[in-house]
Design a protein that fits this description.
Layout lengths: L1 H8 L4 H4 L4 H9 L3 E2 L1 E7 L2 E7 L3 E4 L4 E7 L3 H6 L4 E6 L5 H6 L7 H4 L3 E3 L5 E3 L4 E13 L2 E13 L5 E4 L2 E4 L9
Antiparallel strand pairs: 1-11, 2-3, 2-6, 4-5, 5-10, 6-9, 7-8, 9-10, 11-12
This protein binds flavin mononucleotide.
Flavin mononucleotide binds next to strand 3, strand 5 and helix 4.
InterPro entries: Flavin_Rdtase-like_dom, NADH-dep_flavin_reductase, Split_barrel_FMN-bd
Protein name: Monooxygenase
Keywords: Monooxygenase, Oxidoreductase
Length: 181
Amino acid sequence: MVQAAAIIQGAGSSMREQGVDGVRFRQALAAHASGVVVITAQAAGALVGLTVTSFTSVSLAPPLVSFYVDRASATWTSLKLADYFAVNVLADEQTELAAIFARKGIDRFANCLGWRMGAHGVPLLDGTSAHLICHRHSVADIGDHILVVGHVVEAGTTGGDPLLYHRASFGSFVPLSRGSE
Ligand SMILES: Cc1cc2nc3c(=O)[nH]c(=O)nc-3n(C[C@H](O)[C@H](O)[C@H](O)COP(=O)(O)O)c2cc1C
């Protein structure tokens, strides 16, 4: 909602947005639990990827998804060259994989357990609960992040349980009651 509000209000609202205390802002955001994905792509012959919690669905028809990447990200300098990218939805036993794809200064693909080349030349990580292959739809500068929207051209699921992130910790999903399938 914060991100959506920033888009609607535009740059002219920067004074009002600065009114919130930075610590309280981060604490409030940390109360929001999210799934964990790794965005992967092949750009100029190199494999790139990063762990992301800002992933969300955008539209069903057309099928659009999005994520936000830090403007200062070194990964983005390569990722922005790719026409296609994959969203790898991590399963609850993949906390180490989430950590590897967030670590600076390492070859993230050499350190992960396994991956394969998917359609459109995008690397798909092994053991995930789902994947979506996306054609880059649009990109927009939003504050200190960049909004990346992808048009989903292929999707697959394995039925694994999701990895969650909440208050700087990884966890798994425990249903309070069984919902309708
Ligand atoms: C749980 C978690 C969620 C993250 N979510 C995002 C995100 O939504 N956007 C982003 O740009 N970076 C996110 N990061 C940081 C990146 O995974 C990674 O640390 C960063 O891209 C490393 O910097 P580099 O791209 O300069 O190598 C997240 C990291 C973790 C551990």
